[in-house]
Design a protein that fits this description.
Layout (H helix, E strand, L loop, with lengths): L8 E9 L5 E6 L2 E7 L9 E12 L1 E6 L19 H11 L8 H13 L2 E9 L7 H12 L5 E7 L10 H10 L4 E5 L8 H15 L2 E6 L3 H18 L5 E5 L8 H14 L2 E4 L10 H7 L3 E3 L16 H11 L5 H10 L23 E4 L4 H7 L3 E6 L2 E5 L2 E2 L2
Helix pairs in contact: 2-3, 4-5, 5-6, 6-7, 9-10
GO molecular function, one term: hydrolase activity, acting on carbon-nitrogen (but not peptide) bonds, in cyclic amidines
InterPro entries: Amidohydro_3, Metal-dep_hydrolase_composite, Metal_Hydrolase, Metallo-hydrolase_Enzymes
Pfam families: Amidohydro_3 (PF07969)
């Protein structure tokens, strides 16, 4: 069965949005039209789906993925190469062709896993380099079309092999932006290109000229990382790109002493810079409370899933939210719920959605779980009882219906 966005009325009856009182969710043309007390919505046409009193959450938003790189669905690929960032880049370049990376089938396999686990929107970095050109972006677009838009995919054209050290990559990024990529990316301007000023100046010129966003991977720690944050802040303000720049990973932020950290948070907030994290183990916790108090958006992502960088990952963003909670020592119901909010409505801006929730006007992306409340769902990570994308059922009892 294919996915076709809903054109009829659907009533998702007897569900508990965010663990609250039971409600009926009225969906018209794939969009939530009303949320009313359970038992009060009356069907005019179309279908009625009994939610069985289950916990209802908005579809998950994956704010940092690499859907073009996975070998999901293929025979097991043993980890090889050197464990450094440069070593992973070299290993991937040497091995990707034999695993059909990038390819439509591989992207479809990953997006299906996203859907099965309740992710209905993602921002994905897609490699753009001298070896693959823009073919990865083309594969991702085709894969999203195969699934009929059940997962909405926003593309970041990503220079995984560097920018300045690879002449011609800036031109490819410019072409990708001109062709419709929502953002362009960068990678460790200091440690990969070893010329942070040149890399950032080149990226910001493209972003300013093409009207796209910027999403920059930054693994460098300590003061080297902090120095690059300052360069990014200065350029963001100077070019008027406030609200359109994201730092991904940004490990250094959690490593800095508190006075330095607080001063940087103030400047990041003023520049409207957002943060994407995959909450990896063995990294310093982010100052998430200070970020929340200043309105700095935080998005959660799966990063790569079973790719030539790492054999880990299953596409379940709720599990990433659990990792965030554990890394940051969250315990109270309020804080545990906040971790889930990061994976849903609070991440709407990462995929340019004006609203994303179980509320009128939002796309009807709803996930049902057998859980007492949101903290219970987070700590147990139960299978998804039902997933709706644009008002259509795409997964039931943990299995895709597509």
């Amino acid at each position: 069965m294919g996915y076709h966005p809903s054109v009829a009325e659907v009533i998702l009856a007897n569900v508990r949005p965010w663990g609250g009182e039971a409600r009926d969710v009225v969906i018209r043309d794939g969009v939530i039209a009303e949320v009313v007390p359970a038992g009060t919505a009356h069907r005019a046409q179309g279908a009625r789906i009994d939610g069985g009193g289950r916990l209802a959450l908005p579809g998950f938003v994956n704010a940092h993925a690499h859907v073009d790189k996975s070998w999901w669905g293929q025979d097991w690929v043993s980890y090889g190469g050197e464990p450094t960032t440069q070593g992973r880049i070299a290993h991937e370049r040497a091995e990707r062709d034999r695993h059909g990376i990038p390819g439509v089938d591989g992207v479809v396999a990953v997006l299906r896993e996203f859907l099965r686990h309740g992710t209905t929107a993602t921002r994905s970095h897609v490699d753009v380099d001298l070896g693959v050109g823009l073919t990865g972006i083309e594969a991702v677009a085709e894969a999203a079309a195969v699934l009929g838009g059940a997962v909405e995919v926003e593309v970041v054209a990503f220079p995984q092999d560097g920018v300045q050290r690879r002449p011609g990559v800036l031109d490819l990024l410019d072409r990708a932006a001109a062709a419709g990529a929502a953002s362009i990316g960068g990678l460790d301007p200091a440690s990969i290109d070893r010329d942070p000023v040149a890399q950032l100046d080149g990226l910001f010129r493209i972003a300013e000229r093409r009207g796209v966003g910027l999403d920059i991977h930054l693994h460098d720690g300590g003061e080297l990382g902090a120095f690059q944050y300052e360069l990014i802040i200065d350029r963001t303000v100077r070019t008027g790109l406030q609200g359109r720049v994201t730092v991904s990973h940004g490990f250094a932020l959690g490593e800095l002493p508190e006075p330095r950290q607080s001063a940087l948070l103030d400047r990041l907030a003023e520049a409207g810079i957002s943060w994407a994290t995959v909450a990896p183990v063995r990294t310093a916790p982010l100052p998430w409370r200070g970020m929340a108090e200043r309105g700095i958006p935080i998005g959660l992502g799966t990063d790569g899933i079973r790719d030539l960088w790492s054999p880990f990952g299953d596409g379940d963003l709720l599990r990433i939210a659990l990792g965030f909670a554990r890394l940051h020592g969250l315990r109270t119901d309020e804080d545990l719920t906040y971790a889930v909010e990061l994976a849903t409505g609070r991440a709407a801006g990462f995929v340019h959605r004006a609203r994303h929730g179980i509320e009128p006007g939002a796309r009807a992306d709803v996930v049902l779980l057998d859980a007492q409340n949101v903290p219970d769902a987070l700590v147990r990570v139960p299978r998804r009882a039902l997933v709706l994308a644009g008002g259509e059922v795409v997964a039931r009892d943990g299995e895709l219906t597509l």
